[in-house]
Amino acid sequence: MTPKEMALTAAKALDEKKGGDIAAIEITEQTTLADYFVIATGNSNTQINALCGAVEKAMKEQAGEDPLRREGYRDGTWVLLDYGCVVVHVFSAEAREFYSLERLWHDGKPVDLSGVLTEN
Questions:
Q1: How many Å apart are CA 13 and CA 38, to the nearest integer?
Q2: pTM, whole model, 2 decimals?
Q3: 10, 59 in Cβ contact below 8 A?
Q4: DSSP readout, 21-73?
């Protein structure tokens, strides 16, 4: 599975669990940290953990990948799942606004998720 396909798989898993404001950014040209960031918002700690669980399940079943690292589960306002080439960020609304990753990585290329996300 390519890094882009992994990013789309993560976005679809987030969408299926009703993640909010899902976005993906290709950052291959900007950094060696990863090729893609996938970002979503959860409404509560419970939903944030459910969103992350859905991503982990989809990535394991469809890509055969476990995260290399998980960060932030204890405090639940920002959870990061690092798959090497794809990093998934699930935020509370307040944390997402505060960290503003889309603004920080504005030089990245937005990924079209219209074929993956359902219309609300």
A1: 11
A2: 0.93
A3: yes
A4: EEEEEE-TTT-SS-SEEEEEEESSHHHHHHHHHHHHHHIIIII----SEEE-T
Domains of the chain: 3-110 (3.30.460.10)
87 - beta bridge partners? 37, 82
State the Cα–Cα distance between residues 31 and 104, nearest whole angstrom. 12
> Distance between CA atoms of 91 and 62, rounded to whole angstroms?
24
pLDDT digits (tens, 9 = 90+) for 62-113: 999 999 999 986 677 899 999 999 999 999 999 999 999 999 999 999 999 9
Q: What is the CA radius of gyration of the chain?
A: 13
